[in-house]
Amino acid sequence: MRYVLLLSTLLLIACNQNFIYAQDSTLKKAESYFNLPTKTMGGKQVWTDFVHLRGYRIQQNVMTKHYRLLDPKDVRLAWGNMQGCTEELQKIAEQKELQPVSGRVLIVLHGLIRSRGGMQSIADYVAEETDITVINMSYASARTSIDRHAAALASVVSHLPEATEIDFLAHSMGNIVIRYYLGQLATKEDPRFRRMVMLAPPNKGSRLARLMQDNLLFKTFWGVSGQELSRHWEVLESKLCEPEFEFGIIAGMRPESSSLDNPLFGEKNDLVVSVEETRLPGAADFIQMDLLHSTMMNDDRVKQATTSFLENGFFRSAAEREPIPAKNQVRTQRPHR
């Protein structure tokens, strides 16, 4: 028992010292600390992905600012600062002969107060039905600001130098993160960006968020990003970009058979976002489905429509496309492949 207590004390001291160093993510010296391979939950709410490589992920904790390296089964293999985790990943890549991600890549982002698990089903479907490499990204959606989420997305993209084409798929606020990235951080007119599917995007902000912005529960659960979608929407909107490549929008509507309703809306809605709030000028295709906001990504029709747009540039067929005209310009569509 004495030895157990002594070991626990030594580990606690080591962890406390390492924690202080790990908080400074700007350290140039690689720092990787004593680690026992530990199964994790994969990162929920307080962890954000910065690097993806064949199922391995480097994440940052938004509270402590330290990084960790997870394997495809969410086992922690290392922790410390970014450089330390990067070097550990490089060693693993050499040992396991992991090839850099190349060809066509789809980056998937979940919405507010969700995790990558919520998008896993549709991500798996696209991977099975196409030859696209799918990266399902996790980020601490409610715990920090949109610009921080976008910076993490920029990091993920920057670690895909051999990708020849990059597509995006996002649900709800994930679309706003991508639009911020495109407007503020992305290389302008990156020729690798090809297509994007938006699921229930609050492209005009969220009326629900604005109505609830002073509610204590709203502030607690929707966090910093929720305030940006409500109280600070006008500031945030000015920094967003309409994609300069093909994008399509799938809007949800409360099914008539559903007993659920949101009395805060006076128009068609999915209980969280109205159909009108999803619309964005320049969309190559727009479709409405009788689905609820929080579960629409799991619907087979959404999976099929998403895959169709990524492959062809339309949800149903070229003849049935319903584009939204761009503002004051004629939008030039890329040729369908």
Give an account of the 3D structure.
With 337 residues, the chain is an alpha/beta fold. The protein has helices spanning 2-22, 82-96, 120-129, 146-158, 173-185, 207-212, 216-229, 233-237, 275-278, 300-312, and strands spanning 38-39, 47-53, 56-61, 67-70, 75-80, 103-109, 133-137, 163-171, 193-199, 246-252, 285-289. The chain has a 6-stranded parallel sheet with strand order 7-6-8-9-10-11, with helices on both faces. Strands 1-5-4-3-2 form a 5-stranded antiparallel sheet. The longest helix is centred in the N-terminal third of the chain and has 21 residues, at 2-22.
What topology, given as strand order, has the largest sheet?
A: 7-6-8-9-10-11
Question: What CATH architecture label of the largest domain applies?
Answer: 3-Layer(aba) Sandwich
Task: Give the beta-strand count.
Answer: 11
Q: Could you give me the name of the CATH homologous superfamily of the largest domain?
A: Alpha/Beta hydrolase fold, catalytic domain
Classify the beta-strand content into a percent band. 15-25%
CATH class of the largest domain: Alpha Beta
Structural class: alpha/beta
Helix content: 25-40%
Kindly state the mean pLDDT as a whole number? Answer: 86
Dominant shape: globular
Using only C-alpha atoms, the radius of gyration works out to 21 Å
- The number of helical elements comes to 10
H/E element string? HEEEEEHEHEHEHEHHHEHEH
Tell me the distance between the termini. 68 Å
Note the main sheet: 6 strands, parallel
CATH topology of the largest domain: Rossmann fold
Low-confidence stretches: 1-27, 330-337
Number of domains: 2
